[in-house]
């Protein structure tokens, strides 16, 4: 490919991932407003958030196979069409009265299926356009910056819209951008596919989808109705059984969604755990802080967005610098650094009090923003580090699925912690601190795992060179 087609492909991929992640934080800062308009409980607001992320995580593993079989350009366009349709449904739900919450969640599901198709397809488009690993790392870092850009602009756009219009209008920018991006893709993207030896693993897809949805249902119900409630137990047991079924099916499939042999690579295993923990902490923290700033401090959506800008905006600024480091340093080592810094940032955030002003929040969120730049940029590169070329696409899809599952678990688990602690008499601030401390512990454990993996990786390289 010439430089112009490469630039166009990368540009479309970056804009598309921006559009895909825009709804996450656009909805997060609007949760208090949506709750006030619909009467939704904390559990109901959790479902508004995870109704988008669950289908993203569930569809990602098969999306790469769809692209290989039927063409990445075609799958990309379908994903964008679903994104536009889903956000249009979500926008219309604001006029549905008592049915608004259910229709909103349905729109989120449709949008999430579109996002699940887009995320791995954009990485596949970049890999096809830029086959050289060293050069590709820089473009993957751009892709990660586009992802964080969506998380950054989402709150600001919603904050401004909610000053002048109802909450249904927060979805309109995504609809418009999805249609525009699809038009550019239809004109610029070449078709590409790799059908040899590939077929859809329907049993694996079904088991994976049930495992993700059931486990999240169990966690949310546990936080709302008690961990011993029949619905919580049923969800968690069903999720565990489906996971066992998925692992069994994948070991026997001739064309698995996820080749379990990939986990023999220390770098891939560490990147997978890190991806899950990083998005668990990031999306979960945004969910918690949105509730704290909105319900606890009674700030407007725009005021919440300005505070979150110190998190996501710093990540956008730091992203290109991390991209340059990825060409010089071990991606697993940089990932370990980002996770450790993230743990420090979470401990800093436990210093927030009920009357904390913007200055108290800003520097703490900025530290987390730098950590996120390292985590989000390095994890995508670390996932395919040392992985055989023919398994690189599958490794990227598997890592992305774990990342999205972490993003789904974050609001569910941390929301359950918040609900449980407040239900036992703790203040919102104390409950928030408990959830943030849990985040810090998980990030630190993942950092230690990555540091060990980086050491094992160096030893393997040294052994292979002797």
UniProtKB/TrEMBL annotation:
Q: Which GO terms describe its cellular component?
A: plasma membrane
Compartment(s) of residence: Cell membrane
What is the protein name given in its UniProt record? Answer: Major Facilitator Superfamily protein
Q: Which UniProt keywords apply?
A: Membrane, Transmembrane, Transmembrane helix
**In what way does this protein cross or attach to the membrane?**
Multi-pass membrane protein
- Can you name the source organism? Asanoa ishikariensis
Q: Where is the Major facilitator superfamily (MFS) profile domain?
A: 9-458
Q: Which residues cross the membrane?
A: 12-35, 47-66, 75-94, 100-127, 139-161, 167-190, 202-220, 232-249, 270-292, 304-322, 334-356, 362-384, 405-423, 435-454
């Amino acid at each position: 490919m010439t430089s112009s087609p490469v630039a166009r492909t990368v540009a479309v991929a970056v804009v598309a991932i921006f559009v895909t992640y825009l709804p996450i934080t656009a909805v997060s800062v609007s949760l208090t407003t949506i709750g006030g308009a619909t009467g939704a409980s904390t559990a109901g607001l959790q479902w508004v958030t995870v109704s988008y992320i669950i289908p993203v995580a569930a569809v990602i593993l098969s999306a790469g196979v769809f692209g290989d079989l039927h063409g990445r350009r075609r799958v990309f366009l379908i994903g964008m069409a679903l994104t536009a349709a889903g956000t249009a449904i979500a926008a219309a739900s604001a006029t549905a009265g008592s049915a608004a919450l259910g229709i909103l969640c349905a729109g989120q599901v449709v949008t999430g299926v579109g996002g699940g198709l887009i995320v791995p397809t954009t990485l596949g488009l970049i890999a096809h356009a830029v086959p050289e690993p060293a050069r590709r790392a820089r473009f993957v870092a751009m892709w990660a910056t586009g992802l964080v850009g969506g998380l950054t602009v989402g709150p600001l756009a919603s904050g401004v819209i909610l000053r002048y219009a109802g909450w249904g209008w927060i979805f309109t920018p995504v609809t418009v951008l999805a249609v525009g991006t699809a038009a550019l893709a239809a004109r610029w993207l070449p078709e590409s596919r790799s059908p040899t030896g590939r077929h859809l693993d329907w049993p694996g897809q079904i088991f994976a989808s049930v495992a993700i949805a059931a486990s999240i249902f169990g966690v949310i119900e546990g936080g709302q109705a008690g961990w011993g409630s029949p619905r919580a137990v049923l969800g968690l047991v069903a999720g565990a059984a489906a996971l066992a079924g998925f692992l069994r099916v994948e070991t026997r499939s001739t064309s698995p969604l996820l080749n379990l042999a990939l986990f023999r690579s220390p770098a891939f295993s560490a990147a997978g755990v890190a991806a899950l923990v990083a998005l668990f902490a990031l999306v979960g923290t945004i969910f918690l802080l949105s509730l704290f700033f909105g319900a606890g401090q009674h700030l407007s959506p725009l005021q919440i967005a300005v505070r979150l800008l110190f998190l996501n905006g710093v990540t956008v600024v730091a992203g290109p610098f991390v991209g340059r480091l990825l060409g010089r340093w071990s991606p697993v080592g940089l990932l370990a650094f980002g996770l450790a810094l993230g743990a420090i940032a979470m401990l800093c955030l436990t210093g927030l009090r009920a009357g904390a002003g913007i200055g108290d929040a800003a520097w703490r969120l900025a530290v987390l923003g730098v950590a996120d730049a390292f985590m989000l940029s390095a994890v995508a590169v670390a996932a395919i580090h040392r992985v055989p070329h023919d398994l690189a696409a599958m490794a990227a899809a598997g890592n992305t699925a774990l990342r999205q599952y972490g993003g789904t678990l974050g609001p569910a688990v941390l929301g359950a912690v918040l609900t449980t602690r407040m239900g036992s008499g703790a203040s919102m601030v104390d409950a928030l601190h408990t959830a943030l401390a849990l985040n810090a512990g998980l990030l630190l454990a993942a950092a230690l795992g990555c540091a060990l993996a980086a050491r094992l990786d160096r030893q393997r390289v040294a052994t292979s060179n002797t």
